[in-house]
Request: fold
Amino acid sequence: MRILIADDHPLYREAAALQIRRLYRESQVEEVASLQELRAAAEQAPVFDLILVDYYMPGMSSGALAGLVKDFPSTPVAVISGMAANTDILAAARAGVRGYIPKTSTSEYFSHALQLLLAGGTSIPTDVLMEQPVSDKSPAWLAKMSARERDVLRGQSNKEIGRVLGLAEVTIKLHLRNVFRKMAVKSRAEAAVKAVRAGLG
Reply:
């Protein structure tokens, strides 16, 4: 397992790397401090299993995140940040990242988020999103959603969904494709954001 941490704060970067190595003893963790270093590492090395990116490090923006997601489609990208503002989470989700991990989160939260991301799921801090007011009027896409599609949307990863609902992975992917089309989203993270704000979290 290979994980890349991109953060310009060396203390947090080293602490995160240490925790990852404790959780996954055979893992290889590489550390960089800027977007330029991140791209150099990702382009020169074999495919990473996960890239963790500080939202506020040099060169980073929602546009830069979208570029990373586009250029490295086989690698899940997740944001880590000391300021988990709702606008930042929405921007990251729209950029196509799989998760958003606040730097203030506990080690248990960090561990659980990593497990979800490495299993192909998403990790969005729904408690932060729920601080935003939710309209009493249900969104149009919700009315178009079948009961099975809602069940799939609530799941964290394809593996978990398959285990709970007894569905094959190809069937889950078909449901997700329909869910994304109806919600007008491009990623599981963005779908999760919309679902929470609509009261489906």
